Amino acid sequence: MSTWLIVGASRDIGLEFVRQLQARGNQVIATVRTVDSARQLWALPGGTRTILECDVTSEQSINGFTSELCQVPHLKKIDYVVLNAGVLIYPNKATEASYQNFLDHFRTNAIGPIIVAQKLLQTPIPIGSITFMSCDLSSASQFRAFDGFAAFSASKAALNQALRHMAAELKRMGGSTTILAMHPGEVATDMARIHAEGEVDGIITPEKSIYGMIRVITEKTIADTGTFWTWEGRASVQISTLESNLII
Question: Which DSSP string do the residues of 33-45 spell out, in sequence order?
Answer without folding.
Answer: SSGGG-HHHHHS-
